[in-house]
């Protein structure tokens, strides 16, 4: 099991910014990819942004141009910088990582951090 610990959530006004961090027990270079998902009350969990081991990034359309995902290898962390936040960004944000061993893909999740955007 791999522990992922999120931090940086909170309450912010619309148009504001937050920086989320996900710290990993394992060296992040061991993961195939890492990412952020979010889940709002009554809604399905959705992908927000991912970054591969090679640094390729992917974003859901609604956050393109506003959110940036990056890796901080020195601190075994993945960072999500969020700007121009909107009320619809309100959700629990969860860190995710995938590793592969013997052709099996393993998924790891953090506990989540709450982001609330007030209008």
Features:
119 residues, mainly beta, 4-stranded antiparallel β-sheet
State the distance separating the first and last CA atoms: 39 Å
What coarse outline follows from CA principal-axis ratios? globular
Number of helices: 0
Rg on CA atoms, Å: 14 Å
Q: Summarize the helix and strand pattern as letters.
A: EEEEEEEEEEE
Secondary structure class reads: mainly beta
Give the strand tally. 11
* Average predicted confidence as pLDDT: 96
Q: How helix-rich are the residues, as a percent range? A: under 10%
Low-confidence segments: none
Strand content: over 45%
Let me know the largest β-sheet: 7 strands, mixed
Describe the structure.
By secondary structure, this protein is an all-beta fold. Helices cover 0% and strands 56% of the residues. The chain has no helices and 11 strands. Strands 2, 4, 5, 6, 9, 10 and 11 form a 7-stranded mixed beta sheet that branches. It has a 4-stranded antiparallel beta sheet with strand order 1-3-8-7, with no helix packed on it. A hairpin with a 4-residue loop joins strand 7 and strand 8. It is globular, with a radius of gyration of 14 Å. The protein starts with a strand and ends with a strand. The model has no long low-confidence stretch (mean pLDDT 96).
């Amino acid at each position: 099991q791999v522990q992922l610990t999120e931090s940086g959530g909170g309450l912010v006004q619309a148009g504001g910014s937050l920086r989320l961090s996900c710290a990993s027990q394992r060296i992040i270079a061991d993961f195939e990819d890492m990412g952020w998902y979010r889940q709002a009350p009554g809604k399905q969990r959705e992908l927000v942004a991912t970054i591969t081991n090679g640094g390729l990034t992917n974003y859901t359309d609604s956050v393109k141009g506003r959110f940036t995902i990056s890796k901080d290898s020195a601190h075994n962390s993945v960072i999500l910088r969020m700007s121009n936040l909107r009320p619809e960004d309100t959700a629990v944000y969860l860190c995710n990582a995938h590793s592969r061993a013997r052709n099996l893909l393993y998924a790891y999740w953090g506990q989540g951090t709450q982001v609330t955007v007030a209008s």
